[in-house]
Amino acid sequence: MKNFVEIFEVGPRDGLQNERSRIALDDKIAFINLLSRGGFRRIECASFVSPKWVPQMADSAEVMDGIERTSTVSYAALTPNLRGFERAVMARVDEVSIFGSASEGFSKANINTSISESLERFTPIMLAAKEENLPVRGYISCVTDCPYDGSISPESVAKVANELLLMGCYEIALGDTLGKGTPEKIHNMLTSVTEDVPINRLAGHFHDTNGLALANIDVALDFGIRVFDAAVGGLGGCPYAPGAAGNVATEKVVCHLESLGFETGLDSSIVDQAVGFARQLRGKYH
Ligand code: HMG
Ligand code: MG
Known about the structure:
The protein has helices spanning 11-17, 25-36, 60-66, 82-90, 104-111, 115-132, 154-167, 183-193, 213-223, 250-259, 268-285; strands spanning 6-9, 42-47, 74-78, 95-101, 136-141, 145-146, 150-151, 171-176, 202-206, 227-230. The protein is α/β, with parallel strands linked by helices and 286 residues long. The strands form two sheets. An eight-stranded parallel sheet has the order 1-10-9-8-5-4-3-2. Strands 6-7 form a two-stranded antiparallel ribbon. The radius of gyration is 17 Å and the shape is globular.
């Protein structure tokens, strides 16, 4: 479809990882089962990180085991190291994501390593994923601003993007982790990144702290990006990005894209139900 834009639903992972109260396993499973009927091609459901670092994701294996899978959906999970990758394989995920950063400060705070060491740590994951025939997506956090290092240069993002591409990531998700990106900053960053990375290998991952996520999506659309991460109800945030708000809300992105004449293939009544479910979850656990 010429006008198709994919929304990659990250609510069950990015959306829930930052919730302070422990969300019941049954609620996580019911949330994903509902989203599975929404027409999404990919749903990020789990994160095989250290449970000490992100306690909310400690039951990721049980989540993956409990969901009813739909054959048209790829169920994705984060894997920070080989240990996480092995846990993800055991849990029968369809694809994994490695996650790095364009800023040293965030890399250290989030995964306890420098950028260059993190790339070295990803190499065995890429090799193991090849053997398992599992696609690997690569995230880059802090593509414009970092909570620790301030402004991030477009060249630093381009460098990591190129490395992840050369490593074999099928797609690079550009994360405005803090939600401080502006259309101008996103434009400058994409100008640099697209010098080496083909546009059809890029996705936008915008948090909406300053309410500019849709404007940033517009810039990315102009560049030709056709995949955007979002979370129903605008859930989300990263425990290691203080001050950041949730992911841009799926329902807002759908509305916006449709007003621009794009198709998302999503079932709006299921998306609405999932927004209601996300609100209920918040009410129940806050
Ligand atoms: P570390 O402390 O340097 O690693 O953490 P370690 O190897 O010394 O291990 C520490 C402990 O964790 C050990 O346990 C390991 O066994 C255990 P202990 O001996 O102390 O009992 N461990 C594990 N357990 C389960 N699964 C594993 C695993 N690995 C080690 N895979 C590490 C390094 C990377 C593990 C840690 O820093 C970590 O888990 N970080 C993840 C942080 C995170 O999940 N952040 C949120 C996701 S990123 C994000 O939200 C941004 C994104 O949305 C894009 C954007 O918005 O920009 C993707
Ligand atoms: Mg995020």
